[in-house]
Amino acid sequence: MSNSGPRAGGPTPRRSFTPGQKLAHLEAYQRACDDGTGGGAYLRREGVYSSQITEWRKLRDAGVLEGKKPGEKIGKPTPEQAEIGRLRRQLEVSERKLTRTEAALSIMEKARQLLEDISESAEQQHWYRKP
After folding, report:
1. Keywords on this record (predicted)?
2. Cα separation, 3 vs 1, whole angstroms
3. What pLDDT is stored for residue 60 in this prediction?
4. What integer pLDDT is reported at residue 105 of this predicted model?
5. Which residues contact 25 (CB under 8 A, 6 or more apart)?
6. What's the half-sphere exposure (Cβ side, CA atoms, 13 Å) at 18?
7. Contact present, 26 and 57 (Cβ < 8 Å)
8. Which end is more exposed in the chain, N or C (fewer Cβ atoms within 10 Å of the end residue's Cβ)?
């Protein structure tokens, strides 16, 4: 038998990530999603699961990852930290919606002004014509 199988060298040790690596993965994953290159492709390339990204987001939003040194125990967020994280995410979503709404209102105002200008010029042309 050949020793070239997946467990030929024995079991591989479990991977662990430092808080800095977790934050770096979160940023790179978000960039990949925003750029359209694909978050799934990033996860496959880096060997990271989407459930890890979800958990790390919760920890980041709760402020648990920041200021930790490599090897320092992270632990679960307190209920207050979890609530702060939830509220931060909610604020981000609301701010994105507000930005979109403001842009839509600006476009609608410009369209209204354009239609008003067209209407006025059509009225002026009507009065200048002779029957």
Report:
1. Coiled coil
2. 7
3. 83
4. 96
5. 17, 46, 48, 52, 53, 56
6. 9
7. yes
8. C
Asked whether the CA dihedral 103, 105, 106, 107 is positive or negative, the reply is positive
CA-based nearest residue to 18, from 50, 56, 44, 54: 56
Rounded Cα gap, residues 40 and 35, in angstroms:
13
pLDDT of 71 reads 57
d(CA 76, CA 63): 11
What pLDDT score was predicted for residue 25? 92
Rounded Cα–Cα distance for residues 51 and 102 (Å) = 34
Give the three-class secondary structure for 125: helix
Q: Which residues of the chain have pLDDT under 70?
A: 1-9, 67-75, 126-131
Q: What is the pLDDT of residue 58?
A: 82
Q: Which pLDDT score is estimated for 108? A: 97
Alpha-carbon span 27 to 34, nearest angstrom:
10
